[in-house]
């Protein structure tokens, strides 16, 4: 995020996690929860939970804790999930198809409106309920259709070009799945889905014990030298 | 992560980010970098960078900074990327296909060996260079093929069942793309790709200014009451 936020990046990263857990708690019928209990579920301390929520005007009552449905709604409001977003997907490959087909996004107010690809063989074919449109017609589409979010689902080498066209077309937000960082003006916001990051965290966890054994062995050897 | 790590979750989350940036710097031919410069690129403070790297036995030299290729290699070692992983994908839908087709995983040592699906129409068809195998044969496959990572790419309601079978088959690590938390013994590690998290961070950023204006307006109104 080049974007300069009013709250720390760490807090922002935790917001969707709060939202997920609160949604689950609400679905399970839990009415109220203390910051300590919420902290236990989320692996955070009670004071971190209170601090995070206080960034957004506070909530909850001393001795009562949080009312789960209200806090869930408050969090949805913070995350901007109480409005609608018009979105287009650029790239009708596997990732584009996965995004076009995932029903959860619509529940969050993100309405996919069109899918574009520059591959002539794909243009005119179906991508879920959408007919793939020619990438060449994107500029024209953006002129006549208000678009809030552009989803970049093209190979790395094509991503920056797509980002430039989305920005030129007035799209204010980019959701980037291409495995490369994109540049854009500060007036545009973007997030980047790095699938490999979670894979690397997994491989880290698989090897952590061996890693620390080797670090300790090296330190010990160093001390004896 | 239910997993109890030796370093904080925040540090672990940053490791793949270091790795990505160091790889880019190395590709650009940058030989050495100070913690301040690295911090500027990554939006962290110099002291945070030094602290993070010191968690793993330290590196770099006062007055010289870090030697980029060495630190990249050190980071690859920390992330467990200097060994090979045998992986299977359960689910030959869009996500399963995207994972099966992404060449970057192989460069990180993750070798996809087989793709399974329970849909009879998909069994025997091609998913990239793999022939989709029947999910019923997974147990048998795991008995005769060493497998390090199981990729769950099935709908939410099927995910726990798949996780149970992977665990029963001795698979020590799960990479979960299903939009639901899975339970597993502490001896198994897992990471969860929540695509909606990055979408929610995007919608948060799109609305942050309006959100804080409304919080301040409310506070002001409260003060005047």
Structure description:
- 2 copies of one chain form a homodimer.
- In chain A, helix 1 crosses helix 4.
- By secondary structure, the first copy, chain A, is of the alpha/beta class.
- Chain A is globular.
- The first copy, chain A, has helices at 9-27, 35-42, 46-54, 68-78, 94-101, 104-107, 138-144, 156-168, 195-224, and strands at residues 32-33, 66-67, 85-90, 110-117, 126-127, 130-131, 133-134, 149-152, 173-176, 189-192.
- In chain A, helix 8 links the parallel strand 8 and strand 9.
- The termini of chain A are far apart.
- The interface between A and B is large, with 69 and 69 residues.
3D shape of chain A: globular
The first-to-last residue Cα distance of chain A is 45 Å
Radius of gyration of chain A: 22 Å
Find the biggest chain interface.
A-B, 69 and 69 residues
Number of helices of chain A: 9
Q: What oligomeric state do these chains adopt?
A: homodimer
Structural classification of chain A: alpha/beta
Average pLDDT of chain A, to the nearest integer? 90
Biggest beta-sheet profile of chain A? 6 strands, parallel
Q: Helical amount among residues of chain A, as a percent range?
A: 40-55%
Please tally the β strands of chain A and state the result.
10
Classify the beta-strand content of chain A into a percent band: 15-25%
Give the strand order, joined by hyphens, for the main sheet of chain A. Answer: 7-4-3-8-9-10
């Amino acid at each position: 995020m080049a974007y300069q936020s009013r709250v720390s990046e760490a807090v922002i990263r935790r917001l969707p996690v709060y939202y997920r857990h609160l949604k689950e708690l609400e679905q399970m019928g839990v009415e109220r929860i203390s910051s300590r209990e919420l902290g236990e579920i989320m692996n955070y301390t009670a004071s971190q939970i209170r601090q995070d929520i206080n960034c957004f005007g506070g909530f909850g009552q001393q001795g009562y804790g949080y009312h789960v449905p209200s806090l869930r709604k408050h969090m949805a409001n913070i995350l901007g999930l109480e409005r609608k977003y018009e979105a287009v997907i650029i790239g009708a490959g596997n990732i584009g198809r996965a995004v076009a087909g995932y029903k959860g996004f619509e529940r969050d107010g993100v309405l996919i409106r069109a899918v574009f690809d520059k591959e002539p063989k794909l243009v005119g074919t179906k991508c879920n309920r959408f007919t793939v449109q020619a990438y060449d017609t994107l500029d024209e589409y953006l002129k006549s259709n208000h678009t809030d979010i552009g989803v970049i689902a093209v190979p790395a080498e094509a991503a920056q070009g797509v980002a430039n066209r989305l920005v030129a077309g007035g799209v204010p937000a980019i959701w980037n799945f291409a495995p490369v960082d994109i540049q854009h003006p500060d007036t545009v916001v973007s997030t980047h889905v790095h699938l490999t990051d979670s894979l690397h965290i997994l491989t880290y966890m698989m090897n952590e014990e061996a890693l620390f054994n080797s670090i300790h062995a090296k330190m010990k050897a160093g001390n004896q030298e």
